[in-house]
Amino acid sequence: MNRTQMLALVSTAALAPRAAGAQAAPPVRVLGVTGNDFAIAFFASEMGFFKEQGVEVAFSQIPGGGAATAALIGGSYDVAITNVGSVSSAFTRGLPLVLLGAGGALYASTGPSQFLVGPVNTAIRTAKDLAGKTIGLSTVRDLAQVAVMSWIDQNGGDSHASTFVEMPSLDITPAIERGRIDAGLVINPRYIQAKDNFHLIATPYDAIAKQFLISSPVVNRHWLDANAAVVKRLTAAFRETARWANQNTEQCSGLVAKYTKIPLELVLKTARPPLAPDNEPRMLQPVIDALAKYGVIARRFPAADLIAKV
After folding, report:
1. Residue 59, SS3 per DSSP
2. Domain that holds residue 39
3. Which end of the chain is more exposed for a tag (fewer CB within 10 A), N or C?
4. In terms of C-beta density within 10 A (0-12 exposed, 13-18 middle, 19 or more buried), how is residue 41 classed?
5. How many domains does the chain have?
6. How far apart (Å, rounded) are the C-alpha atoms in residues 208 and 296?
7. What is the spatial distance between Cα 20 and Cα 42, in angstroms, rounded to a whole number?
8. Nearest 5°: phi and psi at 185?
9. Are residues 32 and 146 in the same domain?
10. Average pLDDT of 252-279?
């Protein structure tokens, strides 16, 4: 059975009359961060993978991963596609967040998605040149800051000599252009959209590992316990979406353009991160280790503890 036939059957089932007195389950509230690394829920919604699993979702998006994690903790959403750094931090503080077992995005050094940039005329050329400079990030004390600090220290600089400031991701490039900050971390596809206006300093996520889990669908454990059957279907939907996306790069680019409002010709020039049909602990552990090294989390812990088992 092809996808068109499958979706037709799902649609027919959805239109079947309900038993008397039956009430529709409320939609699962899903929040995604606007960016290439966080698009899996949008793919799943647009391509019908949630519907195939019998899950109705209400999808929203937000600019920053830290804000998405906070919204999930506050109970405004049931699922957030967010960065694994903020989730690791929440976990060590006793907050009941866990990654679903599928659907993470993998950072790959062969196609980086995070870029440390400065103005075209910047004098910053090496890690040492960042001493005394102000660096803009969408979230401080998170994976983004740890990646930049790791790159500085691994390349002969002193990460503690730089100042890190938090600002909405959409404000980073204007802040660099106007001289409010000396450098900033810009993600794709926004980087490819404005790269001619900047000098590329580094791809700092390479300092964490050549490949690692950078984002994932995340849930509150209490919500998971109360909705175990739904979580299983969600996990299955994310797994199938990851498999589909890894085989349909061009179609994904069109969806990313729709999702981010960035022209398709620019999105096609970006490397799309591979998605993980299964979130493996070995792909998460380098992030946890780096966060612990720089004191963002109080302790190192086994990555398997952060991945839901359903």
Report:
1. strand
2. 27-107+211-306
3. N
4. buried
5. 2
6. 14
7. 33
8. -100, 120
9. no
10. 92
Domain boundary, last residue among 150, 177, 207:
207
The pTM (predicted TM-score) of the whole model is 0.88
Domain's final residue, options 187, 207, 227: 207
Amino acid at 309: K
pLDDT tens across 121-136, in order? 999 999 999 999 999 9
In sequence order, the 6+-apart residues with CB closer than 8 A to the CB of 128 are 156, 157, 158
- 203 and 139 both lie in a single domain: yes
The CB-side HSE value for 70 (13 A sphere, CA atoms) comes to: 8
Question: Mean pLDDT over residues 91-99, rounded?
Answer: 96
Q: What is the pLDDT of residue 126?
A: 98
Q: Give me the CATH number covering residue 263.
A: 3.40.190.10
Residues 229 and 254 in one domain: yes
94 in the Ramachandran plot: left (φ > 0), alpha (ψ -120 to 50) or beta?
A: left
What pLDDT does residue 193 have? Answer: 85
Q: Which helix (H) or strand (E) holds 267?
A: helix 264-267
pLDDT range class, residue 52, cuts 50, 70, 90: very high
Assess whether 279 and 133 both reside in one domain: no
Residue matched to tokens 């957030």: 80
- C-alpha 74: how far from chain center: 19
Identify any residues that bridge with 213 across adjacent strands, giving them in sequence order: 106
Distance (Å, whole) CA 227 – CA 223: 6
User: Residue 148 in contact with residue 204, Cβ under 8 Å?
Assistant: yes
